[in-house]
Amino acid sequence: MKAIIRPMTDLAKKMDEIEHFCITESLPVYITKKGTGRLVVLGHANYENLMSELEKIKEENELYKSLIQAAGESRRGESRDVNDVLDELDAELREREDDDRQTERKVSG
């Protein structure tokens, strides 16, 4: 990915140029102060995409943790009733759906 690096003074003096890179070219702009990285400016759509990807990674990580835990329990001979597990999964899915609905209301409201 192409790196766009600009000094802090460009935030005031060349904001149109920074906006062009962020919005039109979908590139992050790295802002420096005295030669040291200080900020990264992103277009809103890119930021939302990054946050969405991060959330997916977090969810996958939780799934992998659960699978590793289940494998360990299985090796130790620990078992659970399948109906209890399915009830827990249903409850978690309902909770996530409720969270999604609340998030949609906040965004649209």
Describe this structure in words.
With 109 residues, the chain is α+β, with helices and mostly antiparallel strands. It contains four helices and three strands, in the order E-H-H-E-E-H-H. The protein has a three-stranded mixed sheet. The protein is elongated.
Q: Uncertain segments of ≥5 residues (pLDDT<50)?
A: none
- Overall shape: it is elongated
In DSSP terms, counting alpha (H) and pi (I) runs of 4 or more, how many helices?
A: 4
Overall mean pLDDT stands at 90
* Share of residues in helices: 55-70%
Estimated structural class: alpha+beta
First CA to last CA: what distance?
Answer: 36 Å
How can the largest sheet be summarized? 3 strands, mixed
Q: Could you give the count of β-strands?
A: 3
- C-alpha Rg, in Å? 22 Å
- The largest sheet has its strands arranged as 1-2-3
Measured by DSSP, the beta-strand proportion falls in 5-15%
Q: What's the arrangement of secondary structure elements?
A:
Blueprint: E1 4-7, H1 10-13, H2 15-24, E2 29-33, E3 36-41, H3 44-75, H4 82-108
Parallel strand pairs: 1-2
Antiparallel strand pairs: 2-3
Provide key terms for this protein.
4 helices; alpha+beta; 3-stranded mixed β-sheet; 109 residues
Short description:
The protein is α+β, with helices and mostly antiparallel strands and 109 residues long. The protein has helices at residues 10-13, 15-24, 44-75, 82-108; strands at residues 4-7, 29-33, 36-41. Strands 1-2-3 form a three-stranded mixed sheet.
